[in-house]
Specification:
By secondary structure, this protein is of the alpha/beta class. The chain has 9 helices and 8 strands. This is phosphoglycolate phosphatase.
Amino acid sequence: MKTVVFDLDGTLADTSADLIAAANACFRGLGHGDLLDPVGDALTAFHGGRAMLRLGFSRLGQGDEAAVDAQYPVLLAAYADAIDTHTRLYPGAADAVVALRTAGFATAICTNKPEGLAETLLQRLGVRDLFGALIGADTLPTRKPDPAPYLAAVRLAGGNPTRSILIGDTDTDRKTAAAAGVPCILVSFGPEGPGISRLRPEAMLHDYRDLPSLVARFLG
């Protein structure tokens, strides 16, 4: 079966504000106040919890990785408690997935968010049943850009990797697609904006209304 695999954060949903809030909760708990900006530091948020913590500690003139390790579980707990306060699907995302499934495509998610958190978020957003598979950062021993999680997502959804495509928003997604030998579509409305075209994906997506026809160009 032809399969469309989506990244989650920055591709299907804008999760940056809730991610930044979780990191700031850590810094407030340490008596430092909010060190990260939900707008200015959004790109860092999409590189994960540890990246946000490192950025915050660097602003304090601290580079101790032990402090990052100590606060990471605190960040995950804070994020789990308020995972969908500000997070929203990008306009048209759910409708595009429905259209793909109606056209006979299998759909899956491959994310570097921990699987449990991804599962919770998709349930809260009301779209978990739109995806036949979910592979998170901790589902397998490796994570993106290793191709194994992507290939597992395709197969779990009932698809054939040779007839699949990845929709993403970062260099990690681009590298994952290259490693798996599949085409990649990057969104221009993610954290890096249109500038992500520098990675030379097979196509750029500017509006989810265009996704079904764009996918058809590659998978027929």
